[in-house]
Specification:
The chain has 234 residues and is α+β, with helices and mostly antiparallel strands. It is built from 3 helices and 10 strands, in the order H-E-E-E-E-E-E-E-E-H-E-E-H. The protein is 23% helix and 53% strand.
Length: 234
């Protein structure tokens, strides 16, 4: 009789463990993202809109934000001297991402490239052997942050979109021989990726309900065993 009780309760405990594990292992995530194209710098308040978290899916536990920024220089160069020459272009800048007046990210990408040109070919066309139009240098940078503060997460919950504001400033410098004609146009782009980590609406019993269900099942098994034992005794 005692052995039967332990076996029945053991089966109920195993069932509770399975249901509780299924409940705790049911965390989920989804991602929404937005990005700008390449825009002439300097600029501010460019809107990047992502989809908010739909609370009907479950309980939002945290968000992870990834911000990508890129600077690009487009340069036109011509060596007007009688000898071959090189040109070095330095590109630096700052890209920021704000939400609701709060600065979330500030990136400072920078890049330097060197280009070589032959002696002046007689044509002031930013081409040929003594000149060129070059899409570069390009500087990239990214950063990731995670948030779990409940008050901060409220801004991400609801219908419609959440608007981030992108800004960018850039500086370029050109160095080389005294016989170089150069001009550089700076561009920038940015992108944000939002990952929502949440506990979805449960479709299995909560651990407390599972425990009650398991105990009822165990008692039911024990009752059947008892009836069988009484019959066999008679």
């Amino acid at each position: 009789m005692t052995t039967t009780l332990f076996k029945s309760l053991g089966a109920a405990t195993t069932l509770v463990g399975i249901l509780a594990t299924a409940s705790s292992a049911n965390a989920a995530s989804l991602t929404s993202s937005a990005s700008s194209g390449l825009l002439s710098t300097d600029f501010a308040n460019v809107t990047l809109s992502v989809q908010k978290f739909d609370s009907s899916l479950g309980t939002l536990k945290g968000v992870t934000l990834k911000f990508d920024g890129q600077l690009q220089g487009v340069g036109r160069y011509e060596n007007t001297g009688p000898n071959a020459s090189s040109v070095t272009v330095n590109l630096t800048g700052q890209l920021g991402l704000d939400l609701g007046g709060q600065s979330l990210f500030s990136l400072n990408p920078q890049k330097a490239d060197t280009y070589n040109f032959a002696a002046f070919d007689g044509n002031m066309d930013f081409g040929g052997t003594s000149g060129s139009t070059i899409n570069g240098p390009t500087a990239q940078m990214s950063q990731t942050r995670s948030f779990t503060d409940a008050s901060f997460l409220q801004a991400f919950i609801g219908s419609g979109n959440l608007d981030f504001l992108l800004s960018a400033q850039a500086t370029s410098t050109v160095s080389g021989s005294g016989n170089i004609v150069a001009s550089v146009t700076t561009l920038a782009r940015g992108g944000v990726e939002v990952t929502y980590d949440y506990d979805p609406v449960q479709s299995v019993p909560e651990p407390s309900a599972a425990l009650g269900f398991g105990l009822v099942a165990g008692i039911g098994l024990l009752s059947q065993r008892k009836k069988s034992w009484i019959k066999s005794s008679n």
